[in-house]
Design a protein that fits this description.
mainly beta; seven-stranded mixed sheet; about 0% helix; 11 strands
Length: about 120
């Protein structure tokens, strides 16, 4: 199981970024995928997840109405569209999957929101 997050970078407050999670080594189309983030000195924070079918999407209150999760199983990717970014969104963002009772984390991507 491998997950690789990408798309992070430096963005000004109010800006947008789209993160991608590229999956390999497992059946993506039968897996729910989550996004988490970890700010400096903080614990991992759950942000969003999407069901295996894509019909169910869920968000933490702190990002609801600003972030949108989606998936393209053909491209083996899950996306996180982030709009109206705030300084407090600065963190390393990770994608996550549970397979056979084990949690797998990908390499994260750093998002920095600063003017």
């Amino acid at each position: 199981v491998q997950l690789q997050a990408s798309g992070g970078g430096l963005v000004q407050p109010g800006g947008s970024l789209r993160l991608s999670c590229t999956a390999s080594g497992f059946s993506l189309d039968s897996s729910a995928i989550g996004w988490y983030r970890q700010a400096p000195g903080q614990a991992h924070e759950w942000i969003s997840c999407i069901s295996s079918s894509g019909s169910g999407t869920y968000y933490a209150n702190v990002v609801k109405d600003r972030f949108t999760i989606s998936r393209d199983d053909g491209r083996r990717r899950v996306y996180l569209q982030m709009n109206s970014l705030k300084a407090e969104d600065t963190a390393v963002y990770y994608c996550h999957v549970v397979r056979a009772g084990r949690a797998f984390w990908g390499q994260g991507t750093l998002v920095t929101v600063s003017s």
